[in-house]
């Protein structure tokens, strides 16, 4: 018997699943919610503008399994989550992506890890299983190996991906509503943005090493492709605007935190698009290159960035914008790892 069952009253929890043309996995996700050891008080699936055939399939599954469906125009995962929260009242919120699924004790474990009397409670979150799209487990621990937990300082939150997934968290409604929920401009990085804003408002967070969710990673997910690239640039811009350098306190957010986090991700995609090596990059070639150009312009204009780094960045951008030369450089890719290792020691990126 869990500590919750012994001494606590089970919290009232709503589970919100954003849905978009995901009839092949939604039944698995919904079943994992309905099979919880502590049942959700409310359970809603938000159809974010799916095709008619997909919407019809969702209705059939909902009628058979007994969960509520809301519908809205397509606006992205963040806006769908916001709509689900707005249509419910439970004081605690759990999210689940349509292609992931909960372990049976998801709500119970997170409730156990939540303090009883914290007037500043923000969220509690747990470990993840990683799995293939079909649910076949790859590993039983992810977040503990890729980030520090719980979150204790803003510099860590800006410099690194948080590895706090809404699908593995229980969030206090007060904290969620205090920051306005998810920023709908993002279709990638919306998770980090939400938890960063709650942290900045003074809401607390707690972590349990017990896994609570199975995260199914596959190349069709939003972690890949042009939508993520667009959101990456938007998030970079938002952070750059929110955290200007502070010379008095010697805090150089652009140089020490933002460039190390985003530089290689943005520039590598632009290089692949420029040389046309992979179809998914070539399809949006001009946009990937434009993203790199916008990123470069912001970095080069920052006073704290070393001149040597600016010169190198300008050279890289000129190559990316000249595909003939970019292809020649790309042939040297076996040496990129060595070059990057040297560059990181010199330029801290």
TrEMBL record:
The keyword Transcription regulation does not apply. InterPro entries: Galactosyl_T_C, Glyco_trans_2-like, Glycosyltransf_2, Nucleotide-diphossugar_trans. SUPFAM superfamilies: Nucleotide-diphospho-sugar transferases. CDD domains: Glyco_tranf_GTA_type. Residues 170-205 form the Galactosyltransferase C-terminal domain. Keywords: Glycosyltransferase, Transferase. One of its GO terms (molecular function) is glycosyltransferase activity. The keyword Glycosyltransferase applies. It comes from the Bacteria. Residues 15-124 form the Glycosyltransferase 2-like domain. Its EC number is 2.4.-.-. This is Glycosyltransferase family 2 protein. It is an enzyme of class 2 (transferase).
């Amino acid at each position: 018997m869990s500590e919750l069952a012994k001494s606590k009253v089970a919290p009232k929890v709503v589970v919100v699943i954003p849905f978009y043309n995901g009839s092949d996995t939604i039944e698995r996700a919904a079943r994992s919610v309905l099979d919880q050891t502590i049942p959700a008080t409310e359970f809603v699936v938000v159809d974010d503008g799916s095709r008619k055939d997909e919407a019809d399939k969702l209705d059939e599954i909902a009628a058979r399994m007994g969960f509520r469906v809301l519908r809205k125009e397509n606006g992205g995962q963040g806006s769908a989550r916001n709509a689900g929260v707005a249509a419910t009242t439970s004081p605690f919120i759990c999210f689940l992506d349509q292609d992931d699924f909960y372990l049976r004790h998801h709500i119970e474990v997170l409730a156990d890890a939540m303090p009883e009397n914290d007037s500043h409670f923000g969220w509690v979150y747990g470990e993840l299983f990683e799995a293939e799209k079909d649910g076949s487990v790859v590993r039983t621990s992810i977040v503990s190996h890729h980030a520090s937990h719980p979150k204790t300082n803003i510099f860590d939150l800006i410099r690194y991906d948080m590895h706090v997934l809404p699908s593995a968290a229980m969030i206090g409604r007060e904290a969620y509503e205090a920051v306005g929920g998810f920023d709908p401009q993002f279709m990638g990085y919306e998770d980090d943005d939400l938890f960063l804003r709650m942290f900045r408002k003074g809401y607390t967070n707690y972590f349990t090493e017990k896994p609570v969710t199975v995260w199914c990673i596959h190349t069709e997910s939003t972690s890949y492709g042009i939508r993520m690239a667009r959101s990456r640039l938007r998030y970079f811009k938002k952070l750059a605007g929110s955290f200007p350098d502070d010379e008095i306190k010697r805090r150089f957010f652009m140089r020490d935190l933002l460039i190390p986090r985003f530089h290689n991700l943005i520039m590598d995609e632009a290089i692949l698009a420029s040389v046309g090596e992979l179809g998914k990059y070539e399809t949006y070639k001009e946009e990937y290159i434009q993203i790199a150009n916008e990123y470069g312009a912001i970095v080069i204009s920052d006073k704290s960035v070393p001149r040597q780094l600016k010169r190198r960045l300008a050279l890289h951008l000129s190559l990316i914008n000249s595909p003939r030369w970019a292809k020649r450089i790309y042939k040297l890719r076996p040496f990129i790892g060595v070059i990057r290792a040297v560059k990181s020691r010199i330029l801290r990126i």
